From TrEMBL:
Pfam families: AMP-binding, AMP-binding_C. Signal peptide: none annotated. Keywords: Ligase. Belongs to the ATP-dependent AMP-binding enzyme family. This is Long-chain acyl-CoA synthetase. It comes from Actinacidiphila rubida. PROSITE patterns: AMP_BINDING.
Length: 550
């Protein structure tokens, strides 16, 4: 019988696509090479503005000089808390040029969420929008290791004021330097040391068993392997435009869009954040060849009455990842776009985005029993196994935990040796996802082993939401579960019991959480019960509540 070691998925790739480069150059190396080869080629587009490779090279070098002059040293961490704007890219390249590590931060995070990351990662410098700096980042950074602050205006490099997206009013900070001004001013020369494969490129925060986000250490080797694998297999062509549909602060956007585009010398088109009408306008203007995003984004695009097949005519490939992709959405997308196939994919922060995808020219099968669409096949150089609870391989077609090995798998979590050892025994990533593989190498994800909630591709740990609920003066007990949601895949629902004599309206509790959590984390529904179900030892039974919620 064929086993996983025989890698049946390789049959789906050409001989050329299988030829992995064992140690491809880092994304920074490849970007600098592109800047030398095609200095006048557009590297970034942002609405009506653009930056060439030479300009992006100069700006990132200037910002690196500024950071080093202010005491930023090799190994230091730079938090980048921005939407899809050019300054994000400049900051990432500058940190790497200065020998530093980037900590991507979701701009939707609130004060408590940000404070944890700044402290846990020991962040030395931060980049955020001017509005966020004034609203709460300044106060949060004051109690953290941050000693360098830079701000970015959403309006820079743009000549068209689009009120649907750009709503912030420019308020220059008096205690944080403007990023582009600092980059243009530059600073003294510094000793540039290009990164080694084992150097940490990113600390990407993801929730874990404790409920507190922990940082996955994505190395430069992790990023470059997946970026160059994508470049080689997709073969988009020298003049391709990649549209950043996924946020670049997320591992998917960072690797599949930003890293792959700049390493290949392509053009990366940015449009602040996802808004269906703005995205369609950007498709019409920039004529991209490739993009990737969660299935919810494509559902939102299909819901636009003005979306036509002509808007998608430039695409050669479109990928979906980060949220379950129903087969019906694939067919609806094909119908509305004139035959364009929406290719599924699977990955995690800990494997630097994709570890399985649908090869170009193929279509993922649907499991006839469950109706589940395959997420793809593992890539060349990647090993995926399905394991039982004892860690033994199960036969093809049998469900078990998905385990991944390969050059894209992180070496561990930042300052979490015990959790690293548990999740990555022997370097093999135990994903916590339940799935199976068929004999042709197609991988199916059918459930999650953990209680993690996946809302529109963003991961939500129930404990984090419960901790906020417990700060409400009327709440006695709290439990959070994920419930099916036709649009988001899952949404957050909270069950609470109240303190004796207390009174609280569910809508008021929702609003309370909304003020304290990122938009995708707060519960969309709160149900008040007299008591929550518990074990004999007093542990709240989430599984019973989840079953009750349906």
């Amino acid at each position: 019988m064929t086993g996983y070691a025989d890698r049946p998925w390789l049959k789906h790739f050409t001989e050329e696509q299988r030829q992995d480069v064992e140690h491809p150059p880092s994304v920074l190396h490849s970007f600098l090479d592109a800047a030398g080869r095609v200095p006048d080629h557009q590297a970034l587009r942002y609405f009506d503005g653009a930056l060439g490779y030479r300009e992006l090279d100069d700006l990132s070098d200037g910002l690196a000089r500024h950071l080093v002059a202010r005491g930023f040293a090799p190994g230091d961490r730079l938090a980048v808390m921005l939407q899809n704007v050019p300054q994000f890219v400049v900051a990432v390249l500058a940190a790497w040029r200065a020998g530093g590590t980037v900590v991507p931060v979701n701009p939707m995070y609130r004060q408590g969420e940000l404070a944890h990351i700044l402290q846990d990662a020991g962040v030395a410098a931060i980049v955020c929008s001017e509005s966020a700096w004034h609203d709460y980042v300044r106060a949060t950074a004051a109690g953290s290791p941050v000693r360098i602050a830079l701000t970015a205006s959403e309006f820079d490099l743009q000549t068209r004021d689009d009120p649907r997206v750009l709503t912030a009013t420019r308020r220059p900070a008096d205690d944080a330097r403007d990023l582009l001004a600092a980059a243009r001013a530059g600073g003294p020369a510094y000793d540039a040391v290009l990164p080694a494969a084992d150097d940490t490129a990113l600390i990407s925060y993801t929730s874990g068993t404790s409920g507190r986000p922990k940082g996955a250490r994505n190395t430069h080797g992790n990023l470059s392997f997946n970026a160059h694998r994508q470049i080689r297999i997709q073969a988009l062509g020298d003049d391709a435009v990649v549209f950043a549909l996924a946020p670049v602060f997320h591992i998917t956007g960072m690797v599949c869009q930003l890293s792959a585009a700049l390493a290949a010398g392509h053009t990366l088109a940015l449009a602040y954040r996802f808004e269906p009408g703005v995205v369609l306008d950007a498709f019409r203007e920039h004529r991209p060849a490739y993009t990737v995003g969660p299935s919810t984004a494509f559902m939102a695009l299909l819901a636009r009455p003005d979306a036509t097949a002509a808007d998608f005519a430039s695409f050669r490939l479109i990928s979906s990842g980060g949220a379950p992709l129903p087969p019906a959405v694939v067919e609806a997308f094909r119908s509305r776009t004139g035959g364009l196939y929406l290719a599924n994919g699977y990955g995690l922060t800990e494997c630097s985005a994709p570890c399985a995808s649908v090869p170009p020219g193929s279509e993922a099968p649907v499991d006839p029993v469950s109706g589940t669409l395959a997420v793809g096949v593992p890539g060349p150089g990647t090993m995926v196994r399905i394991l039982d609870d004892a860690g033994a391989e199960v036969p093809f077609g049998t469900q078990g935990e998905i385990a991944v090995t390969g050059p894209m798998v992180v070496p561990g979590y930042w300052n979490r040796p015990e959790e690293s050892a548990a999740a990555l025994p022997g370097g093999e990533l135990l994903t916590g996802d339940i799935g199976f593989m068929d004999e042709d190498g197609w991988l199916y994800v059918v459930d999650r082993k953990k209680d993690m909630i996946n809302a529109s591709g963003f991961k939500v740990w129930p404990r984090e939401v419960e901790d906020v609920l417990y700060t409400h003066p009327a709440v006695r007990e709290a439990a959070v579960v994920g419930v099916p949601d036709a649009y988001r895949g899952e949404s957050v629902k909270a069950y609470v019991s109240l303190r004796p004599g207390a009174d609280a309206d569910p809508a008021e509790i929702v609003a309370y959480c909304k003020e304290r959590l990122a938009a995708y984390k707060y519960p969309r529904e709160v149900e008040v019960l007299g008591d929550l179900p518990k074990t004999a030892t007093g542990k709240i039974l989430r599984r019973e509540l989840k079953a009750q919620a349906g």
